[in-house]
Amino acid sequence: MSIIYFLIGCSVLLALVFLGAFFWAQRNGQHDDLYTPSVRILLDDEPDKPEVKK
Amino acid sequence: MKQAEVDKQTTCYHCGNDCAGEHIEQDEKVFCCNGCREVYSILSQSGLCGYYSYNKHPGINQAKGGKRFDYLKEPSIVKDLIDYSDEKLTIVTFYIPDIHCSSCIWLLEHLNKINPVIYHSRVDFLRKQVNIRYDTQLITLHEVVSLLYRIGYEPLISLQDVVKKQTADKKDNLIKKIAVAGFCFGNVMLLSFPEYLGISAYEQSFKQFFGWLNLAFCLPVILYSGTGYFKSAWINLKNKVLNIDFPLALGIAVLFVRTVAEILTHTGSGFADTLCGLVFFLLIGKFVQRKTYHHLSFERDYRSFFPVAVQVMDGETEHPIPLANIKVGQRILIRNNEIIPADAILLKGDARVDFSFVTGESVPVNKVLGEVVYAGGRQTGEAIELEVVKPVSQSYLTRLWNNEAFTRTQENRAQTFSEKMSKYFTIVLLLIAFGSLFVWLPVDLSRAISAFTAVLIIACPCALALSTPFTMSAALSIFDKNFFYLKNTAVVEQLAHIDTIVLDKTGTVTISGDTSITAHITATDSEKQMVYSVCANSTHPLSRLICQYLNNYIKLNTNSYYEVPGRGITADVDGHLVRVGSAKFIDTTQVESSSAKKTEVHLSIDEKYIGYFTIQQRYRDGVTTVQSLSPAYKLYLLSGDHGHERESLSSVFSMDDMFFERTPQQKLDFIKQLQQNRHKVMMIGDGLNDAGALKQSDLGIAITDNVNNFSPGSDAILDGRSLKKLPKFLKFSKDALHVVYISFCISLTYNVVGLSYAVSGKLSPLVAAILMPLSTFTIISFTSLATHLAAKKRKLL
To answer: Cβ contacts of residue B124 below 8 Å, gap of 6+?
Structure first.
């Protein structure tokens, strides 16, 4: 059953990685604006082509 | 198909306004005004017509006149506005109130296509901000702002920078603390499970290992996440205040000490799970309580209303000077629609000043040369020159902000229920804890200590600390759905305690600038022209309204013009004697009158009565429902303007409780006097002239027709449409308070149950670990459910 020591070590390490990732996102300002990206994703990127006359 | 064509013909392609009358066409599209057309042509030249594809008519009407941003050429002003600048790059954040749809986001994030030297722009929709990065060498701030203005997104630039203030106050890392506490809580729960289920004898080595790990996870919780409670408890103890943080800090400390002791001595498994859970839930409660409205500001003062800079005349040249640097004796130039920032003497020009900020009267007042014009007035008409006689901060309106009501902190308002109760709670808790210690002490020392600590652990008022935040934040979001925005959760409780309501008139009871005038006259065109010519000479508000009504006549010469203040005008126009004024002034037997409650202007020409005008201010929808508050709440009307409407308002307010011609300072003093008579006063106002009264009152509500417009500093902002719901709001705030009382009782019940285990000295970690989250979840679900039911009952949902 000594494998438990190893498994717990792994799980704690993994959890720490996620905690670190959360801190990184927080510091990067990824949680500052939680609304605009949801709108932005619906806006199309226009291809850079010259204006076509209709 | 036909329908669509009609639609296209009459509404502006840019802003969607009706333009049935005059309109301008370009590219087969119709525009209501030149401004809208210009925005369209800028966008179409830059290939940004996608703007119009996401929403129908996304634009803002551009009919309002030109605006100058000359002051943005002044380096000292620019320095205060930008976030960062070096030789190549400048970063600036603007607050743009007009941001309202996805097209706005799209356009503002494509500024680069209009001008490539703007590298990057990013919109924060809820804050209505745009962050722009541009090349310092190739474009100036002035040009960036002008560009935004040209495409219809005028940034709101004010001295009291809304943008920076809001980012400054989130430095206490609450989110990070919650993350750490949540991380530790989850892991500790996982490691505690074997203990709950029982560890067999040959696996005892695991038990110690789990214990040590649990202890390790407790450390960040105690040393990082929970530090706020220790600090707060310590500060409050030093100030001789017992608040809820004291028993909480005590509980956390005891939990930790006992956990350490049990694990080090191998006598038990400790309370690591309870400790981490407690801190985690408490911090979540704190987070919930801190609801912020990013797009609203409750802390505005006169600087938000005043311009950033004023044009100062220096000999023949003029240049902008920041408002704070204006000195007595300087000559300032005020253009149309600009606000006079300091008390000044009129030197040149035709001053027609709109004092609606100061008095509530929106009809412009004429000033003669040499007269003192008070700060806060808005010039309408041509540019005028004035000489400053008082510095900005000492001027008529701004002097109000030197009052103590503005310098005192918010803290000394009424204590909240949980603050009051936690004092008694702490005392009783300590009594029980020491009681059980002394009862067991003669019997068994270890049992005495165990009972003592168990009491402190089990009675730790976690559920109690959460009941107020969860109830109040649920209430806050219900108010918010009804367009009533409260500054923080404590305001809900203030609202429940109000017994006196004071309302401002202009803009609060009435809709500002919205008067209706009806003519009951039988007159020929030439007679109407005569009336127009007489009224055009007068500056009386009613005369101005009549002139607006009869606007397409040419003014005739008047002789022997004579105005009796407050009564009427007599004048000779082309040999005809024209009389305009009150029924008594006209003095003919023919006078007919519809009702005594309206403002009327009667007319006669050559002693022949030709009819009258009725003039009425439009009242807000809610005014009649406000009246229904009357027996339960004392209602007052406090107005800055004259009492013409005393009669028509007497249906809502009793005659003795209406006060007119009050200066901003008198309004503040009136509130103070009510408070000295032990009334809890709620002030509802809209303008800068109410700012003092709003601040002084126990609960100041700023009413506005557009929440993005500037409203004076207050505790709450109410959308004008929801004034009629005010009685419901007041009832609901009382319901919310009742929910807090009940949840308080529930959490006390849990405490009593837990205490019966604790005093015996036999508290198992499992009981503590179950009881604490159970009581927390009960409270959270009860409060949110009960608050929503109460809202349903009051028809606010």
So the answer is: A32, A33, A36, B130, B131, B294
